[in-house]
Specification:
Length: 281
């Protein structure tokens, strides 16, 4: 039976839909301007600025020709970024899941003290300098892509998400598995890991975006011109004395496309994981 909505509810839904549509337009507008700018002549951008509409007079593919002037460099940058992103995401999901599982178990006596230790680092961060010293002096990762993977490996916020999901798993499942002879690690990857997949999908998505868009560490740690990520490649399109804005827009589109394809293909899993994480306490 269909329940008839009251007047107040209809007004609220109408306002909510309008606000959501306006917010979506504001979020999509920069992307649309970059897309149009990448197909616009550079001379038109310099004289008339960015336009909302693309005409036959202003249309040009010259920006993409300039961006793909060195295709080997783009392919190499894609390969390095893809390696850093996949490796960092896989390891980050595993570390966050294992840490959250241990800290969520009521039979672990030090879980509250260790949880406070992790939470304390979110209030008082060491900053960028300790990260640089650790990567360059301790691990000797100068001019190495491992220096980009290391910052992606663990996040306290990801650990909190994993811990909240692990808390929702009944302890009786672990006890039954232990009685059947399962080890703690087997209980983790046979029981806890599959049940926490929605939360781990959220962690994977956040880490994926963080690793793919990483620029600051790449700029500081990678001085070798032969080792560049896709974000460094975009910045290289910006000249020292002159900036070709059309080519810069084309480079941004080249970097955005893989993440767009990822969200289009896996949007159901990504949205499901994030909405499931919103109701876990």
């Amino acid at each position: 039976m269909k329940i008839k909505k009251g007047k107040d509810e209809r007004i609220f839904l109408g306002i909510a839909y309008v606000m959501t549509a306006l917010f979506a337009i504001v979020c999509l507008l920069p992307f649309y301007l970059i897309l149009v700018g990448s197909f616009t002549k550079e001379s038109t951008i310099l004289t008339e600025g960015y336009s909302f509409f693309l005409t036959a007079r202003n249309f040009s593919m010259e920006a993409y020709k300039m961006a793909f002037k060195s295709p080997d460099t783009i392919v190499q940058a894609y390969g390095i970024t893809l390696f850093v992103t996949v490796t960092g995401t896989v390891i980050a999901v595993g570390l966050s899941a294992m840490t959250g599982y241990v800290l969520a178990r009521p039979d672990f006596p030090w879980r509250n003290k260790i949880s406070f230790f992790f939470f304390f680092t979110t209030l008082f961060s060491g900053g960028l300098v300790p990260w640089y010293l650790m990567c360059s002096k301790f691990f000797k990762f100068n001019n190495h892509i491992y220096s980009l993977i290391l910052p992606c490996l663990f996040s306290v916020w990801n650990m909190i998400i994993a811990k909240s999901f692990m808390k929702g798993i009944p302890v009786e499942l672990d006890e039954a598995a232990y009685m059947d002879g399962c080890s703690y690690f087997k209980m983790f990857y046979k029981i806890a890991f599959p049940l926490a997949k929605p939360g781990l999908a959220t962690i994977g998505t956040l880490t994926l975006l963080n690793c793919w868009n990483e620029y600051l560490f790449a700029y500081i740690m990678l001085a070798n011109e032969k080792i560049k990520t896709i974000t460094q490649g975009i910045f290289a399109l910006k000249g020292r004395y002159y900036t070709d804005y059309a080519t810069l827009c084309a480079g941004l589109m080249i970097a955005i496309i893989p993440m767009m394809a990822f969200f289009v293909i896996f949007q159901e899993q990504v949205i499901g994981g994030m909405t499931a994480g919103a109701v876990k306490g």
